[in-house]
Amino acid sequence: MTDTLTPVLSANWGTESSWKLESYRASGGYQALAKALKMTPDEVTGVVKDSGLRGRGGAGFPTGMKWSFVPKDNPNPKYLVVNGDESEPGTCKDMPLLLASPHTLVEGMIISSYAIGCHTAFVYIRGEVLHIHRRVQAAVAEAYEAGLLGKDILGSGYDLDIIVHAGAGAYICGEETALLDSLEGRRGQPRLRPPFPAVAGLYASPTVINNVESISSVPSIIANGAEWFSSMGTEKSKGFTIYSLSGHVANPGQFEAPLGITLRELLDLAGGIRAGHELKFWTPGGSSTPILTAEHLDVPLDYEGMAGAGTMLGTKALQIFDETTSVVRTTLRWLEFYKHESCGKCTPCREGNWWLVQILRKIEAGTAEAGDVDKLLDVADNVGGKSFCALADGAVACVTSAVRHFRAEFEAGTTTPAWEAFPYERSALFATSESKEVRA
Amino acid sequence: MSVETKTEQAPAPVETVTLSIDGIEVTVPKGTLAIRAAEQIGIAIPRFCDHPLLDPAGACRQCLVEVPDAGNGRGFPKPQASCTLEVAAGMQINTQRTSEVAAKSQRGMLELLLINHPLDCPICDKGGECPLQNQALSSGGGESRYEGVKRTFPKPVPISAQILLDRERCVLCARCTRFSEQIAGDPFISLVERGALQQVGRYAEEPYDSYFSGNVVQICPVGALTSAAYRFQSRPFDLVSTDVTCEGCASGCQLRTDHRHGVIRRRLAANAPQINEEWNCDKGRFAFVSGRGDDRITTPMVRVDGELQPASWPEAIDAAVAGLSAAGRNVGVITGGRVTMEDGYAYAKFARAVLGTNNVDYRSRPYGADESAFLITEVAGRTLDAASTVTYSALEAAERVILVGFEPEEESPMVFLRLRKAVRKRGLTVVAIAPLLSNGNRKLNATVVATAPGGETAAITELELTSSDVILVGERAGLVSGALEAVVTKATAAGARFAWIPRRAAERGAIEAGCLPGLLPGARAVSNVAARVDVATHWGVDSLPPLEGLDAASMLAAAATGEIEALLIGGVELSDFADAEAARASVDAARFVISLETRHSEVTERADVVFPVSLLEEHSGTFMNWEHRTGRVNKVVRQTRAPMTDLRVLAALADAMEKPLGFRSEAQARAEFIELGTGEQRVELKALRPRSQPLRSSHGEQHEGVSAKLATWRMLLDGGRSQDGEPALAATAKPSVAKVNPAMAQQVGVSDGDVLEISNGDSWFRLPVQICKDMADATVWVPMNSPGTPLSELGVVYGDAVTVDHGGEE
Fold it and tell me: Which of B102, B427, B708, B764 could form a disulfide with B759, with the two C-beta atoms 3.0–4.6 Å apart?
């Protein structure tokens, strides 16, 4: 089954000091940049457009098309902002990429900036992961020293500065307009659209915001061509991507494969569900994507396949839960996260998640009353699709999908605490202090 | 904009779009928000964060509607916030009236807003006029499904001395924070924390000391923001509301005054789109209790054996008439800044028709020699609708506004707000010819032409004007020789418009009423024979005194020498004159003094006869604002401790002197004044000779220190007596500081926080110093009438030479 893997972004992760410029160059790094600088910016955009690369942050918007929205006649400077605020529960793809090969991103940023006519690019990194922040800073410093950043890059006459910015620990700053506010020094709260960032983004100037993985995919596309890229993947979801498997799998980790691979195939690569257990439910792309069950093992993990199953590809963070897991408890944990991370700007997200957590706690504790599950669904309905940004939609997606698939488990909350139905220590992979004694 | 272009230019056609809301077609200007379009056809969509004068936020999500067709044949999959949704041609919108999706969204949102909202409506100030309460009834569900414990916070948090915050009531609509940032430009409050703990916060070091802070109480859609002044004072449904025009300054704000049991409880900004929009300043909102003190005069008083004794009305009138009759025509009439146009007209007529003198002046403030000619020729008789008139709307549409001797935020806060709106929305350019760049003008992105006092005339002359410029000239410019004339000359040559913006509410109306020694009512110059005949005929008197009378300061000087035998003074504080000590000496020296006053004052204690008159809230009348727009003052309180108005007292005196005034009520006076109308006879500025210099004592030899020109103006919140009795308001005033530029600071040897000593040669006062970069050389600025700045006691005014010296460490 190893044929299924297509290591491109992760190809050099195993080399000695892969994060160093020297090592990156030895494995062919920065050759795509030299090639790109000999092309016109429009040609570079054209190749990315033709490749069919779609945003790897979750929404799947075509990257090349996003670039072409930047108005050419706007007198303000143009900015590239790379979203490295990876905070979605279960998601772990950008951080390992930046840890192992930060120069892939730097090279991608230079090429992308060149394509959109930007001379100051930003990378916004989740603040809690200090080691990643340092590693990217070091890579950018190396690139400056080598003449890959700054004035007249590789003698092309093109100038670019990259600014590495650390966030202060807010999930909402992964929302692109909240990220821009945060980058400008304000509180991270989403902005009203229109105007869209392509027209008035960072400092009210045309701005392209892309995910780390999207930008990091650009050098390989330039180096190998659009056809090479689009030969991988499915009809509308081209190329390769990093899937991260976590939870009750034998060998969790990152798996770089063409879009359209199925969970069954990925589980085979990861050694299957942990020994002696079976799959109960899973998320395709982090906790914001509605959960799936064993019946979806063979649905292609691409944008269309997941939409067809009533969920989303998201960040391709596959969290795997086996039959020992309480779906009530899992949903509660996720909602506690969203409650904590709600920025507070709009009513449904701020108040709704606060309330949903309280209802879920009652269900978990077995003290729910008849009708509480319907109330849970109704409050979720009053939150979902009503909020200012997509955060609350993601929050209630796990509630509604969990009840859809496992309603009986929620209804049991009127009589039985979840920790009795699903003793928590059974689902733990490691020794845990959290047991029913502690909770009681 | 010149006169010609204004009339010739057709208004630009407004591009419109037609859409349907609940199946009803409506045509609105392009760019209209859906919530506004719905209002056009009478559909009210519930809302909290939406406010038509603030930028849309989309935060509360209460106004969700269903949009089955965005105008392109496709609908929005999710309900849309109608407060952020711009309409498009062919769009279909279904509100809660026709769409269950919209109705459920709104019910759900209200339920979410209420889960953490306390059920304290019975003790909440907002209860009874609360948008949350109202909309919970109109659009919410009947029962709460919430069973948990509501979120609580310690309460209340004072975000300033005046504004209190009860966080558990807050629905986080961000109206207050948006107001303070977008409208007032004082972003001292902001939303802090996140999620369910989000709350309105302030900087620990900087209270929300904004001149406009009271507006946030009014626009708060719940009872989260209250004022120290009104908190727990009344229930909205127990209040009786009256429309009034604010007496705080010449902006002309339309307000609503609420009283209960004859006591005013609060004042609110009324909706007056052409004037104050929906805002007002804290002075106008909170400074209304000064008449409530125990210094109120309720009975007439007559001086007997050197002591003022309570007297009956007939006794007091007899005593006054005796004193006035003895003085003959040698009487001076001085009215202050509080009288209505009708009262002013009564004083003007009383002086001319009863006393037979033109010695009448309303200017109880420093003024220059050439001011009265400017007022007579360039201000009197101007009307709101003339093409040359500058209005609030004209300011909003202007390309460039030049401020001369005028600080909008301190001296006319509504002009400030309108300028700021134009700066923010249209990129209006503001240029200030001023000694320094004030904080208020900084909020207007103004460029300062740093001009030492006295240099204004030259600075104006150097301006390059175009016909689209607007000059706003303040009353301080009248103290600078030639400045007013320079404004007229320059503006006329360029076809630019200008407006004179006085500080006090009564100023503009007093001019129209004829309370100037050279001006009869209706903008008729005394020097004009035909004008005198017109007015005399109208009044039914044989003739009017032909010679221009004495101005206020000259009257005081003449009283000191005995040339003027009697003074009739209404609504004047002696410390408002340029030289308080000289003014006191003059009134002391006057043989006979009549005072019409609401409260004991430096005039009443020197008077021979004192008549109690009603407070403004106790009578009706008219003010004219700087735009020449009239605004009505309606009687708020009917049970009053002093029912006689100035006008009624003057009519009684006239009756007793057997020269009846011809009116006894405000309505009669107004009818007569309107019938008299505005004179046709225009006067040229050049034809008027400058008046004598104001009364001033001479000062001693130069004190030790560095010589400087004195720059000064009144702060909006200061030591003025009309602001008495409201400590929470006073606590939000700016602290008194002296400002000098770095060169001056170096010369004197002071740095920020040191104490500066300001002296007129004889006496001195000290203030902490603040070094100001954008400031003219050899100039010191101090507030005019704030605590610790006794300028009139020193007898110095704007432009005078003073000496400054190091006053030691703070």
Answer: B764
